[in-house]
Amino acid sequence: MCKLILVIATLLAASFLSACGPTANTNTTNKPVTSATSSMPAATPNPAATETDIKKLVTDTAAALAKNDAAALEKLYADNYMLVNLDGSVQNKAERIGSIKSGDTKFDSFAYDEVTVRTNPEGTGAVVIARATASGINKGKKTDGTIRVTQVWSKTKDGWQQVSGHATQITSTAASPASNTPASNSNASSASNSNNNTNAGR
Fold this sequence. Notes:
Elements: H1 2-20, H2 35-38, H3 47-66, H4 70-76, E1 77-84, E2 90-92, H5 93-102, E3 106-119, E4 125-138, E5 141-156, E6 159-169, H6 182-200
Parallel strand pairs: 1-6
Antiparallel strand pairs: 1-2, 3-4, 4-5, 5-6
Helix pairs in contact: 3-4, 4-5
């Protein structure tokens, strides 16, 4: 009887000590990494890399226009693309692509230079100002000479695409964009405004 009581007492003592001891495994070595511990800061946009990407797309756009390649332009233009033409008229993507497919807009040559790119801090948008030298027909009218072009590019689910374009004929009095003095900017603005008024009346 005494032995039985001793065995029961030993078992009770062992279970009590086990219940009071540490039960949780505090070793974090093999714990799965949670989203809270694995969150890393977002990658900082690289303006230089973005500028390189956009300049390549500008070159690709010029090549597509020079070849009147509507299929290539459909990929470069976003679905909400809008273009302000030399005469002040506005075309959406379907109208611009349709004009090229029909031959209403047809280029013999097209090239960009003086390309400058500005990006937003998030690296999701860019504005391009460039000079285009073109020869051909646009909306049935002869197009020859140099054009100041503004493009807006956006990073979409399909990559970088052009969402907006604006063209202004460069006159002999227009200042180069490389000059950034107030007087030069004023002259360029006056020439551009004067030319826009002329184009609007065409």
